[in-house]
Design goal:
Chain lengths: 269, 336, 255
């Protein structure tokens, strides 16, 4: 359960599920005028089993890049990422494939993250086909129905196409798609920020119930301090591609030590 | 223009903006999207307009101020500074005031400035168009620098020679505000002016708008989906949903008996500092889009207080331009 | 139109190649519904026979460039980097070649024939499709739903068949319907300058070219083949539009 203290400290004795060590990545600056830096510098973080960890930062702080690196969508420069003690760049092809079912991602934009030419049933099935090919067709369909009900959607809707759903419903489908392969680690990259206020609250509730139902370890990337406060056990604060502060959510948000964190917290209503 | 005697108080008589029974329809389909909106804004007042996407808040504002080409004022009357705008000819007439009397700060600061023109020239041009100050005159130069200073640009002398893409989103929004202020408008309409910006910049921009409003006695209509942001910053809040006006209340009354069930529900959706996960109460279902066309209260299917009356009767309309207003049919029955 | 192309030869009242000098330049009448041309050949029959010739050669050109261009474009987009740049520069250079010059070259090499014209058009048309499909693919690959697929480890082949092609379909179909008329006219044009279909063959473009000299004496000779080209091009456009509407799930509305 997020918010409860104790579980995180206990886990710290164990081996982390995911460990990022000294990760750096720099992008070539494409524009002469723009001084925007999209680089990560010396990022280190740990995630333990069953934890919900927040990454808090403004847009441009590099948190999405970090999410893409961890899910192996983007290559990285220096540093190492260990998953269950094994460096992910040393993975063999089969280990790499395995890793892709262990670590899943939910993106910010629910409009772009579903294939517009595929029914949502097929979109959700995609991962099952790949990672659990032993399932028969009816078993897969049953699984899809179960997933849809877990995210609060009726299974009658499953043969519709993404454009027939609202933003909030699409985000539910994207979440169902991600958890279909029964990942251990779910990375959520700003999953709320393009949703309406009342729908955000629904998705927050959904995450809370999914964390319990599926015992998910979650890396929750957000710019919204109040959402991080609600969902996350621990938090890393990122600014300009660096981690400026980290610790238990309640401690960091109640007694921030870093100037940037203070500024961030002060600006929240 | 003399006002017909009405039961409303003095505040209404000197209101800077009055909307009475305004309906907005789409030009193409003639579909009524926003129904029977009535409220008034006092000079110097900071007025919040809250609602989720599809509530019609942006459509309403953009249409009454003539910024929307695809929608028109179908019914009702707008009075701006004692000038009445009837629904016909509305857009053409209001556009003459746009910029001069009505300042507009749009959502996206990245597309609202001309990317190929230096900042200084854009402001001077605005000064020329609005106030007839020659762009080359010393006065224009001086006023430009003053304006930039007023909106918190630290080195105005350097800024005038720069192009918009040399500024961050927050700085651009400041420049947009400077251009709006250059016309000395009597009302400033800010449509989600900070959604494209990060939290820190957002706060500073809102503060800037509030502070300018207080200094210049400038009325502000701040449109936002964030009820918490409005509650902390504005004097009164109007809440819209599904094209209907549900609630007008003083911002410190959110959560009190003055708030409509939707206002209350929406407020409970927003994570705040002092909340636990259990305190978050989402509203079931999906928000209704404006223009759904059925009778009754647009919120009824998601509302905990729903009675039969909610689906059969039309919701109350703020016809007498009360300062506070609650359109809940269920609560109306209980009130004296 | 396709039906016409298939059954055309069977319903044609006359032999399209039969020359009848007694009846040259006959106005449209009951025997020769659309009149006869300068050599006394029945125009209606020639149009009906020509339908097969014209449509077949057009479809050949389009189908070949579509398949070849898309394979190249999609491959290029997936590989990216230097290979991508190299292929696209070749396509650019190729686009710079005027098709007519290319066709003349082919005619010189292969002899003037309809086949040579088709080859020439294929060779000058593929870069359009390579570039277009590469552009669409790059765009689709940048979408988040492809990132989701990548996060699952979806194979490249499946990404092409299930993600890229269905989403590229409507842009490609629009390009195809636009190009059909262009290709048809190009074939006719090539026939006109003498490197395409040779004179007696009832190719529509060649018919117009041939009939040009009789415009003042027999308007029907150029008008009806022209009309045939126009109607065919338009019906292909309509077919394309219909296909797009039928196959695009985002245009389905329920309730």
């Amino acid at each position: 359960m997020p918010g409860q203290s104790g579980s995180a400290t206990m886990n710290e004795l164990a081996e982390p599920l995911l460990q990022v060590k000294g990760l750096s990545k720099s992008f070539a600056k494409r524009y002469l005028v723009h001084q925007s830096k999209f680089s990560l510098q010396n990022i280190s973080l740990e995630l333990y089993d069953g934890e919900v960890v927040g990454i808090l930062g403004e847009s441009g702080s590099g948190k999405s890049t970090l999410a893409n690196i961890i899910t192996r969508l983007t290559p990285f420069g220096e540093g190492q990422i260990f998953y269950r003690g094994k460096e992910i760049r040393s993975h063999s092809a089969s280990e790499r494939f395995e890793y892709k079912s262990e670590v899943q991602i939910v993106f910010q934009d629910p409009y772009g993250s579903l294939n517009p030419r595929s029914t949502i049933r097929n979109s959700i099935k995609e991962g099952l086909r790949l990672h659990q090919p032993q399932l028969s067709r009816p078993e897969m369909d049953e699984r899809v129905d179960g997933l849809l009900s877990s995210v609060g959607l009726a299974s009658e809707n499953s043969n519709k196409y993404p454009h027939e759903f609202s933003g909030g419903q699409r985000q539910r489908i994207a979440i169902a798609r991600a958890i279909a392969v029964q990942p251990t680690l779910l990375i959520c990259d700003e999953p709320l920020s393009s949703l309406d206020v009342s729908i955000q609250a629904q998705i927050i509730e959904l995450f809370a119930s999914l964390i319990e139902e599926f015992r998910l370890t979650m890396l929750f990337i957000s710019h919204d301090i109040n959402v991080v406060r609600l969902l996350c056990d621990r938090v890393y604060v990122m600014s300009d591609g660096r981690i400026v502060e980290f610790g238990k959510t309640s401690e960091i948000l109640n007694n921030p030590g870093n100037d940037y964190t203070i500024k961030l917290i002060d600006s929240v209503y | 223009m003399p006002n017909s005697p009405s039961p409303t108080g003095n505040a209404e008589r000197n209101a800077i903006l009055k909307l009475e029974g305004v309906c907005v329809a789409l030009a193409a389909s003639r579909k009524t999207m926003v129904r029977n909106i009535s409220f008034s804004v006092r000079p110097g007042e900071i007025f919040g307009l809250a609602g989720e996407s599809g509530s019609g808040k942006t459509l309403l504002m953009r249409t009454i101020f003539g910024l929307h080409d695809d929608a028109f004022v179908e019914k009702g009357r707008m009075t701006f500074k004692n000038t009445e705008f009837s629904s016909s000819e509305h857009r053409r007439r209001v556009r003459k005031l746009l910029g001069r009397e009505i300042g507009f700060v749009p959502q996206d600061p990245f597309s609202s400035l001309n990317p190929t023109m230096r900042i200084g020239r854009q402001i001077r041009e605005a000064l020329y168009l609005g106030k007839g100050i020659s762009p080359k005159s010393a006065e224009a130069g001086k006023t430009t620098l003053e304006l930039l200073k007023e909106v918190g640009i630290s080195e105005p002398a350097t800024a005038v020679g720069q192009y918009p893409d040399q500024f961050s989103g927050g700085m651009r929004q400041r420049i947009v505000i400077a251009i709006a202020l250059s016309q000395e408008p009597s009302i400033l309409v800010a449509d989600e002016p900070t959604t494209a910006l990060d939290a820190y910049t957002q706060r500073r921009i809102i503060n800037l708008i509030i502070e300018r409003s207080r200094n210049r006695n400038l009325a502000v209509i701040l449109i936002s989906h964030n009820l918490e942001l409005l509650r902390k910053n504005v004097d009164r809040i109007a809440v819209m949903y599904g094209g209907q006006l549900f609630n007008i209340l003083a911002s410190d009354e959110i959560g009190s008996s003055a708030s409509h069930p939707y206002t209350e529900a929406l407020f409970k959706c927003i994570p705040r500092k002092d909340m636990n996960l259990a305190d978050i109460q989402s509203i079931p279902g999906e928000p209704l889009s404006a223009g759904y066309g059925a009778a009754g209260c647009a919120f009824s299917s998601r509302c905990g207080l729903r009675r039969d009356i909610c689906d059969t009767s039309e919701i109350p309309v703020n016809a007498s331009l009360e300062q506070e207003f609650d359109a809940c049919l269920v609560r109306a029955g209980r009130r004296p | 139109m396709l039906v016409l192309a298939v059954i055309g030869p069977y319903v044609a009242p006359f032999d399209p190649l039969a020359i009848d000098f007694r009846n040259r330049l006959a106005e449209p009448s009951l025997t020769h519904i659309l009149g006869t041309d300068g050599s006394g050949r029945d125009v209606l029959s020639r149009i009906l026979y020509g339908a097969k010739l014209t449509i077949l050669s057009t479809v050949t050109v389009i189908a070949t460039v579509l398949v070849f261009g898309c394979i190249l474009g999609i491959f290029s987009a997936f590989v990216g980097g230097t290979v991508d740049n190299f292929l696209m520069r070749i396509a650019d250079v190729w686009l710079g070649f005027p098709p007519l010059i290319l066709a003349l070259g082919f005619a010189a090499a292969l002899g003037s024939s309809l086949e040579a014209a088709i080859m020439a058009l294929i060779f000058s048309w593929w870069p359009t499709y390579a570039r277009l499909s590469r552009m669409i693919t790059v765009d689709i690959l940048s979408k988040k739903f492809v990132a989701s697929a990548n996060a699952l480890g979806v194979s490249t082949f499946r990404k092409v068949t299930h993600y890229v092609l269905p989403n590229a379909f409507d842009v490609l179909i629009i390009q195809v319907t636009l190009d059909i008329s262009a290709v048809m006219l190009a074939i006719s044009g090539l026939s006109f300058i003498g490197v395409g279909a040779q004179v007696p063959a009832p190719e529509w473009g060649a018919m117009i070219a041939e009939g040009r000299s009789f415009t003042s004496k027999g308007w029907w000779i150029v008008t009806f083949p022209g009309l045939a080209i126009f109607i065919t091009a338009m019906s292909f456009n309509l077919i394309g539009d219909m296909l797009r509407r039928e196959l695009d799930p985002t245009l389905i509305t329920r309730q």
